[in-house]
Amino acid sequence: MAQGRLRVALLLVGILFMAFFVRLIDVQAVNAKSYAERATRELTKTAKLLAPRGEITDRNGNVLARSVESIDLVVDQNLVNKPKRAAEIIAPIIGKSPSYLQSRLTGTRKFVYVARDITPAQWTQLKAAIAEENQGGKLSERIGGLFSERGFRRDYPEKFLAASLLGFVNSAGIGGGGMEASLNHILAGKDGIFTYENGGGPSIPSSRQTLVPPKAGKSVRLTIDRDLQWAAEEAINELAKQTQASSVSAVIIDPRTGEILALATAPGFDPNNFSRTKASLLQVPSVQEVYEPGSTGKVMTMAAALEEKVVTPTSVFRTPDKLKRAGKAFKDHDKHPVWNLTATGIIAKSSNVGTIKIAERMSEQTLYSYLKKFGIGEGIDLNLPAETAGILHPVEKWSRTTFPTVAFGQGYSVNTIQATNVFATIANSGVRIAPTLVAGTSDSAGHYTASPRPESRRVISQDVAAQLSAMLESVTQEGGTATKAAIPGYRVAGKTGTAQRYDSKCGCYRGYTSSFIGYAPADNPRFVMSITVQNPVGIHWGGYLGGPVFKSVVSYALKNYRVPPTGDELVPFPLDKAMLKKQIKEEKQRKEREDKISAALEKR
Fold first, then answer.
1. Which range, 150-154, 195-199, 468-472, 595-599, has the best average confidence (pLDDT)?
2. For residue 374, what pLDDT is reported?
3. How far is residue 47 from each of residues 106, 143, 210, 221, 294, measured CA to CA in Å?
4. Do 303 and 460 contact (CB within 8 A), yes or no?
5. Model confidence, pTM
6. What is the DSSP letter of 315?
7. Full DSSP string of 225-256
8. How is domain 54-222 classified at the CATH fold level?
9. CA dist., res. 404 & res. 123, Å (int)
10. CA-CA distance, 291 to 501, in Å (whole number)?
């Protein structure tokens, strides 16, 4: 029996040793890597080191968006012994209700956010208050479990200024609208990693630590001028209130470079509190909303006709107040007797009938080709989300009434930037430059990289651009539709637009889009500005609504940039046949006087 027990014992010992041996092989050979990784996870802790986003500044370095250090208050609910008392202490410091805080502090979860974005001063005050409460008390009754998680929040120091353009950053640190969204890959930095031994921590020098430092995002310099942006927003905010419009947009472009100096939207919002804002206000209507331009589109018809040499600024057209084409009656905005207008007069008085007659001297394909050259139906690529290219159907899809409709600015759609750039092309002697919003970027070391120069192409000749510019000056003078846009001491060119507004909800035309686009000084253009009013209530004429805003803002720009007053006065083109005859007669008399003076001098 003793020998039997000994054999059993030896067998059991052998089995036990075999089990240990198999386990040893498994740990040290077969699954050595996975066990090592598991051990590392259990022995160390890893924390994320958040990287700040880059700044967004205007062209002069004024900060429009920045990242500032913030603290989030978190809790391990298992360590809070007196949640009600803790809530009473914390509430007055961070401005939360005790009942809300008690609900966040009570439970068994190890990680709960109590408050986001408290200041360093609040965190210091909170720690001191908890320490005072715990002083002298029993260990089991002390309040604990509160920790700080450091990070960054997005701050917009100018608040409402350029809000729709800048966008916002959501709670996850991702850009959600405007430049913040479209340039998120540039602005967002790369988070770092901090690894330390379990039981140690960042504050214990003896614990082994591994650090991958965070990499800050690049900063973006816009072409926007903060002061011009402010002036534009002030003006259109007032206009939006007066007209009760669904939106008002204003754009200012430097025609020499294509740089956008202001891109304003009303009504606006505060991106510091974007969560309380209606979704419709977070959009950028200048690039996201398309509309039929109306009479501002007539400048492209006129440019095509001048370039094709089928008209001159003084060509005379018999112009009634309505005209029938393909069974449809096309009308001017007001009833009037038959006019004998020059091409300049047709632009000045914004005659639909006259513009159709001018367009009929060209083919449909010719007019279409010029609209394409001006960028209609093409994307702009301003690095803004949800940009629209507008609509311009090919000639093959035109109906019998499309040609006359397109001639005076309806039957196709544009966004505000496209419409403004048409006038910038004319102001730039016929050369179209792609609009730009981003001047360049800077890395965390401050090294600046300028954006590539935008593409440019000639659309119309310099002579035709000069003729058309002079014709557009008549719009802001006596007899034109935008006398309210005139600026004393400066020559101003421009065009009004009042178009029926297509409403996608009913699939019909309902309401109006009112606009004015102009530039100054007309003899040496520095600023091209558009004002677009969507769905105004009451008066809806583009010159009446947009003209005063143009005058106010561009006057400020001319003064701010110290642009000298116009030198040469304009010799205007006549607006009608009578004025043309008078001008020819006066020119003949002047020539005769000069000839007499020359003859008298020769006799001497």
1. 468-472
2. 97
3. 25, 24, 10, 32, 59
4. yes
5. 0.84
6. -
7. -HHHHHHHHHHHHHHHHHHT-SEEEEEEE-TT
8. Penicillin-binding protein 2a (Domain 2) (3.90.1310)
9. 69
10. 7
SS (H, E, C) 28-42: HHHCHHHHHHHHHHH
Using one digit for the tens of pLDDT, what is the confidence trace for 257-313?
A: 999 999 999 999 999 888 778 887 888 889 999 999 999 999 999 999 999 999 999
C-beta separation of 543 from 283 below 8 A: no
Query: Looking at domain 283-439+452-524+538-573, does it have CATH number 3.40.710.10?
Result: yes
Side-chain half-sphere exposure of 378, counting CA atoms within 13 A = 13
DSSP state of 566: P
What residue type is 75 in one-letter code?
V
The structural domains of the chain, with segments of one domain joined by +, span 54-222, 283-439+452-524+538-573, 577-604
Amino acid (one-letter) located at 286: S
Q: Cβ(233)–Cβ(161) under 8 Å?
A: yes
Residue with tokens 């498994």: 26
Cis status of the peptide bond prior to 521, with omega within 30 of 0? yes
CA distance 88 to 82: 10
Collapsed DSSP state (helix, strand, coil) of residue 541: coil
One-letter amino acid for residue 271 of the chain: P
Q: Is the peptide bond before 404 cis (omega within 30 degrees of 0)?
A: no
Q: 219-222 and 56-57: which strand pairing?
A: parallel
Q: Quick one: residue 458, left, alpha or beta (phi over 0 = left, psi -120 to 50 = alpha)?
A: beta
